[in-house]
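Title: Request for sanity check on PPC domain-containing protein prediction

Description:
We are preparing a figure and want to confirm that the structure record we downloaded matches what your pipeline produces today. Could someone re-run it with the sequence below and paste the raw structure tokens into this thread? We only need the token string, no images.
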Amino acid sequence: MEVKQTKNQTIYLRLAKGESLLPTIQQVCQQLNVTGGYFTGIGACNAATIATYLPDKQDFIDHEFTGMLELVSLTGNISLDHDQQPYLHAHASFSYLDAAQKVVLTGGHLKAATIGYTGEIVITPAGFAIQRQFDDAAGIDVWQLPTD
């Protein structure tokens, strides 16, 4: 991995073949004390797990993909979990060729991805901490934004 932080705090991250996408972003956030913000990225992966949320079951169904996966779009946010560690909530779109050599586009909640060639990620810190707290109505942890 290569990391460069600019004077305005924006972080540029390049991931190498074989690196795990989300744990690497999380590690950089922890090292550079990013407690809130967002990230975007593109690249190429060789494995990914995306999930679809089933509200009636309050659970996810996983979809696993392997092979040449173009990371068409990665977007996510950074907050703090209950242990005050960086928590990433990410969604991604991938394209790949099916058996008939037609392009297929898929996406959803990103649970895991392994870089196949490169990953180019931009992290933009918010400049303040964003906490996550359980919301009874939603049935999941959601942002708890500072009131000041």
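Thanks, this matches our download. Residues 2-144 form a domain with the 60s Ribosomal Protein L30; Chain: A; fold (CATH 3.30.1330.80).
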